[in-house]
Every structure is written in structure tokens, then in C-alpha cells.
Amino acid sequence: MELFRATEVVKDYAGHRALNKVSISVAEQSVFGLLGPNGAGKTTLIRIINQITAPDEGELFFQGRKLKSTDIQYIGYLPEERGLYKKMKVGEQALYLAQLKGMSRHDALRNLKKWFEKFEIQPWWNKKVEELSKGMQQKVQFVTTVIHEPKLLIFDEPFSGFDPINANLMKNEILQLKAKGATIIFSTHNMASVEEICDHIALLHQSQKILDGNIFDIKDRYKRGIFEIETPDTEAVSLFSQNGFSLIEHDLHGNRQRIKFQKATDQSNNELLQKLMGKLEISAFREVIPSMNEVFIQVVQQANQKN
Amino acid sequence: MNKALLILKREYLTRVRKKSFVILTLLVPFLFAGMTILPAWLAMQDDKEERTIAVYDGTGIFLGRLESTDYTKFHFIPQDEYAKIKEDIRNSPFYAVLFIPPNVLTANRAQLFSDKQVTIDVKSMVAGKLGTILENDKKKQVIDQSGLPDLEEKLAATKTHINLETIKIDQQGSAVKSSTELAMAVGYAAGFIIYMFVFIYGTMVMRGVMEEKTSRIVEVIISSVKPTQLMFGKIVGIGLVGLTQLLFWVIIGGAIVAGVQSFVGGGEVTTLEQSQNLMSTSGVAIEAATAEQQNMALEIIDMIGNLNLPLIFGSFLFYFLGGFLLYSSLLGAVGSAVDHDEDAQQLMLPVTLPLIFSIIILFPVVKNPEGALAFWASLIPFTSPVIMMVRVPFGVPVWELLLSMGILLASIWGIIWVAGKIYRTGILMYGKKVNFKEIVKWLFYHN
């Protein structure tokens, strides 16, 4: 089921088009990665989803109907540049932000208590925000983002500013929220985390969407027939310099030869394997799937060359 | 609860609970009272130091006529002693030595020697006494020479003091006793208070917007509420803080005035009598003077009653809120457009310039509340909150007042629209050096 959809969204700023006919569709209870180089238009799109700014063209749908201004209570937003009122007490502030999202004071208090206990941050309740370390402030901010149990969560670079332990904690929280039914839009430059938690991605570049799809499909789409085999046959390298293969690299690992090559023809993996089996002893055979990082760089570079 | 109301509540409570606000609100009336009452009270305190002045009278006409006062005694000495004391005044028991030369009647001069700087009170008291005695002698001589009967009484009767009453004919044609001084005082005070509050609380709105922008919390907040709600809650919340402070100042100030009146009131009459005792021995004069003062007090009360108090209070509230709304929206927009304090100062100046201008022309307007400057400045919405308020106690034609209010309301509406546009773009704009050209561009953004 689809929770959110944007169609052909256009946004212009004085002489500069920030978004050019961008459409995305976010499935319910999934993690949607919004990727792209700096200045591609991610933040603009996120602000449009949050109704901070209005699109010049295009339409937005939430749960199958048009997005309404009251829907902001179903959305939780953690912006990339985070901040809280420095002079305000932690508890009071969390309560205030929860009420601004439309929660009653009573419900907000109950949920806050739960989250503060979960993160073991109850002792901070009466502290001023400026007394907390940056990491502690991030935790408080995370709580204020999810406190109203939003259906749609938008995280912009959620792990920046966290140490690896807390970053991992946050990652697990995000996956738990998804397991409980939340839908998440996740914007980041950190491709490793994209592979870990995203189900679907859209890649924005120069105000346009240039790639969209399920993360496994995309990786499949960008594999280039590169394989890695291991063989005890030390003479095997010569085989990959011809026969339509192109040898990428090889090295001797003890008594085993490790060879990385690109297949030439449109043969399937099984055909390739059969062909190789007749010629040499195979200890390991693996297709090299590109990482999201490689896909990202390749796609953006291709787009740049086109221009 | 309505979200704008939530914001308003936070803006109000966080400021009202601040220690600095509580201290300022409670302390300023006392400071102000201290600053005005203390010097007056000190000035009223007589010099209570006992002094003895040695007098060498070269003429012989002052002996027995130079009367000692409660704290200053005159002690007449012969010539040889005078020379001795003058030599060594430091070790003499006298505060000073007065030398009256034989030719004092023609030269009009005498000398007061002291090892210290003689105080102004002593100096004027001695000079006054000598002068009065000599003047009386001369007058008596003239009267005696003229031979006219009852001349002294006739001369005394020529002393004249004009008490000019100002009476205003109001629109119904009935005469109302007015006080120019009172209208000036009320107008000046009202105009100045509006200026001060608009400036202080307008700047507070600007700082509040900047705080939200620089701490980056604004993006979270406007993902929950509309920027206009945030701006509205902030401006109204801070405006209420200003009204709260004003209310406390009026209450505390009123209590202080009442307290001082009941405390000093009784004593004042006696000191007044004392001082009059010094000036004149005539009991009739005192009675006349006190009667006149009672009259004046009654008249002032009468004239306060004749000021259109409901109109003045009503206009004050209107221009107070109107001026605040106008300038705080503009200053809020300034706060949204900048990242740093220095840039804020730069953009703030042109915005607050009309306000500063209105305080500069405050005095000319008070002096001539019907002049062209006063007229135009009380219609222009950027100066009218201060200037029209200065004019209201003098009485302003109804159409002028209504026109001024109408223009102000329309301008507030327009300014809020413009400020809202700037605000919505500005709060999300970082790292850009903003100038007016840039801001004008924002007005045409589609948010």
C-alpha cells in the first residue's frame, strides 16, 4: 500500500529551479531512501512534504487522498540542522513540541515518560538544553520527532552527530519504528546505512530524479558482469586474458589464484559457470554486486557527462 | 489547544518568568521614584549645621538688625578683634568673618572671609539679609523725603502677580478650563512610554526570531505550525509581556506616589511654612499663599478631570498596541533575514529610524501640537503612535484622530503581509548575506 505520493513536483526559486517534475511513491511500512549530491533538491522536497513550502506545480497525496494541512500531525520531521531552545528545560520543551504536533498534554506526558525511560534520559528532564552535550541533545531531538507516533517519519541525515554506539542505537530504533508500522523517508549521504536500512531509493541530481526503485533491483540493474573466482589452478590467469573475458585483477593467495574479471557476452551466470567448469577447478565463484556507493557515483557521473 | 495560543503561552511565560524581567518590573518604579523624589527631598532638607559668623561692621548701622537664624548666628566684634581673627581664622571658633566696609551704602559690597569655601546657602542668606536691611533703609529715606502719607502701604499694594488661566472652548461651545502644562506633561510622558516600549519589545521580537533561526529549531516548529501562527504567537505573546510590565509599573508607581503623598504630605506644610517664615514675617501673606496653593491643587484636580481621560487611555492603548504591532512585525522580519547580530544591527537601523525621528521631534510637537510637523507626523503610521499620542491630551479634531488610526490600521495590515512574506523565506535562508534588494525579491516568492 502506498502511503505517500508526489507527482511532477516543480519548485522554482528566483531564477533557479530547485525541483523539476519530481515524482516519488513511498510504500507503507517501508524505508524510502532519498539520495543525491549536495544541492540536488532533497531538502526542498522534504520541506514540501512537510508543508514548510508549497510546490509551484505538482500534487501531493497522503494515504490515497490529497495531502491536507492537518496531516502534519501524522508526520515527524528530524531536519539535518538540528536545534532546540537552548534556555528551555528538556522536559518542558519536549512537551511543548509534542503539543504543537497536536497531542494533548496528558498523552504527550505519558509518551514522553516512556521514551525518556527507554533512552535512560529521565534525569535530564529539568535540565536546560544548553547544559547537555551535543549527542544528548540529538537524543532529545529524536524523541521529540517520534513522540506523536507519526505515520510518516522523515529523517534528514539522522546519524550525523552521533557516536558509532548511539548511531547504531538510532538505526535500531528506526528499524523498530518501521516494524511497528511507521513509514520512513530517509535522506543521507551515507551509502552504507542506505544498504542497511532502505527498501527503496530515489536519487535526485540537479533538481531531477535520475534513479528510482527497489534497492536490490537497482543493484542488479547496475551490475556489469563482473565475477570473482578462486582456483588452485595457477595457470588459470591466461584463460581470462582471452576468450572474450577481460581480466580486471588477480593475485595469488597462498596456493590459490584469485581472479576478478568481466564476462563479455550475454551469457547467463549458469552458462558462464558451465563453461568455466570444463576448463578449471573452481573453489569459489561469486558475482560482484555493485555497492550503493558505486551505483551512486556511477549514476551521478553518467548524468554529469550527459550535460 | 489552538497552536497559536500554545506558542503565545510559551513566548509569554518564558519571558515573564525570567529573573531579569521580574527584577526590572519590580525595581524600575522604585528607581524612577528614587531618581525624582530623592533629589527633591534632599533639596528640601535644610542645612542643619550650626555656624557662627563674626561680623565687623564698619558702618554701625547693622548692629542689632542682623538677625541670627536657627543655625547661623551672627556675632559682632570690634575692629582689633576682627584684625586678629582674620589673621588666624583657622584657629578661631568662627565659620567665617563678615567685613562690612564703611562705604557699603554706595559700593554695595562686603566681604566674607573663611578658611573654607563658603556654602551657597550661607552666601545667599548673608547677601540677602544685608541687601534687605540696606534696601529698607534707602526706601525709608525716600519715603521720608517725599512726605507723602501712607506711601509704604501704597507701594506694597502695587506688587502684582498675574495668574493667567487658559480656557478652551470645546466643540459644543462650552468653556473648559485647560492646562497647557498638564497636557504637555501627559502628552510627553505618553509619547515617550510608547516609544520606549515599542523599541524595547520590538527588539525583543527580533531577538526571539533570531534565536529560533540560529538555534535551527524553527524548521521543526514550522513543520508543526504555520509560520504565520508562529509569528502571531510570538508578537502577541511579547506584546502581552510589555503590557504586563506596564501594568505593574502603573500599579507600583501609583502605590509609591500615594505612599509618598501620605508620608510627606503632612510634613510638607510645615516646611513650607518655615520657608515662608524666613521670607516674610507677615502672617497674612502665609495665609494667602496657602490658600492659593490649595486653590491650585483643586484646579489641577479639576483640570485632570477636564482632560478627556477615557479618550487618552483609549488612544494610548491603541497607539501602544498599533505601534508595537507595526514595528515588531518589521523587526521580526529583520530578525528572520539575518544570521548574525552584526547584520541585525545594520538592517535594524533603517527600520527604526522613523521611530527615532519621532522622539527627536517630540519636543517641537509638544511646543506646537497644532503645527504642520505635528499634523503630518501624526498621520504617517511610522511616527503616529508616538506623535499622535503627544497631541491627544491637547485635544485633536475627531477626523484627524480617526484618519490617523485608520491609516495605522491599514499600514499594520500591509506591513504584516510584507513582513510575513520576508519572514517565511528568511527563517529558512542560511549563510546568505542579505540586503534590501534580496529581501524585495523574497516578496515575490511563492511559499
From TrEMBL, chain A:
Query: What taxonomic lineage is listed for the species of origin?
Result: Bacteria, Pseudomonadati, Bacteroidota, Bacteroidia, Marinilabiliales
Is the keyword ATP-binding assigned to this protein? yes
The record's section on SMART domains has:
AAA (SM00382)
Family the entry assigns: Belongs to the ABC transporter superfamily.
Key word Zinc present: no
Tell me, what's a Pfam family for it? Answer: ABC_tran
Question: What is the protein name stated in its UniProt record?
Answer: ATP-binding cassette domain-containing protein
- Which keywords describe this protein according to UniProt? ATP-binding, Nodulation, Nucleotide-binding, Transport
Instruction: Give an example GO molecular function.
Output: ATP binding
Output the InterPro entries linked to this UniProt entry: AAA+_ATPase, ABC_transporter-like_ATP-bd, ABC_transporter-like_CS, ABC_transporter_ATP-binding, DrrA1/2-like_C, P-loop_NTPase
Which residue ranges does the record assign to the ABC transporter domain? 4-231
Natural source organism: Gaoshiqia sediminis
TrEMBL record, chain B:
**ABC-2 type transporter transmembrane domain spans which residues?**
19-419
Look up keyword Cytoplasm and say if it applies: no
Q: Name where it's found.
A: Cell membrane
Entry-linked Pfam families = ABC2_membrane_3
Q: Does the keyword Glycoprotein apply?
A: no
SUPFAM superfamilies on file: Periplasmic binding protein-like II
Task: Could you list this entry's UniProt keywords, alphabetically sorted.
Answer: Cell membrane, Membrane, Transmembrane, Transmembrane helix
The portions of this protein that span the membrane are 21-42, 185-206, 235-260, 311-335, 347-366, 401-420
**MF term (GO), any:** ABC-type transporter activity
In terms of InterPro entries, this protein maps to: ABC-2_transporter_component (IPR051449), ABC2_TM (IPR013525)
Q: What is the membrane topology listed in the Swiss-Prot or TrEMBL record? A: Multi-pass membrane protein
Gene Ontology cellular component list: plasma membrane
Lineage top rank: taxon? Bacteria
Q: Cross-referenced PANTHER family, in alphabetical order? A: MEMBRANE COMPONENT OF ABC TRANSPORTER YHHJ-RELATED, MULTIDRUG ABC TRANSPORTER PERMEASE YBHS-RELATED
Q: What protein does this entry describe?
A: ABC transporter permease
Task: Tell me the classification of the organism that encodes this protein.
Answer: Bacteria, Pseudomonadati, Bacteroidota, Bacteroidia, Marinilabiliales
